[in-house]
Specification:
Organism: Tanacetum cinerariifolium
Mean pLDDT: 78
GO molecular function: RNA-directed DNA polymerase activity
Protein name: Putative reverse transcriptase domain-containing protein
Keywords: Nucleotidyltransferase, RNA-directed DNA polymerase, Transferase
Helix content: 10-25%
Low-confidence stretches: 91-95
Oligomer: single chain
Number of strands: 3
Radius of gyration: 21 Å
Strand content: 25-35%
Structural class: alpha+beta
Order of helices and strands: EEEHH
Length: about 100
């Protein structure tokens, strides 16, 4: 049977090296981690049967170090148009 017994719990001692220092972290007013947007790394168009979805690969500075995510380009552009101006100027210089 699926029964939880408190007597089966064991004490947990924190492992010091796994503790994250709080001095470099940023929080918003609801105490969520604020991840800093760094740059657009790559672009890709995901092709489906009847549509195409433009995506951008974004590099973030998060509490665990640099992270990369794929975001919808149109939604991301509405939130961060300054990054698209920077990538457009750098790509026109390269050509």
């Amino acid at each position: 049977h699926n029964t939880f017994h408190v007597s089966n719990l064991k004490k947990c001692h924190a492992d010091e090296p796994l503790a994250i220092p709080l001095d470099g972290l940023h929080f918003d007013d609801k105490l969520y981690f604020v991840e800093e947007l760094v740059e657009i790394v790559d672009r890709e168009v995901k092709r489906l049967k009847r549509s195409q979805i433009p995506l951008v690969k974004v590099r973030w500075n998060s509490k665990r170090g640099p992270e990369f995510t794929w975001e919808h380009e149109d939604q991301f552009w509405k939130k961060h148009p300054r990054l698209f101006a920077r990538t457009a100027s750098s790509s026109s210089v390269a050509s």
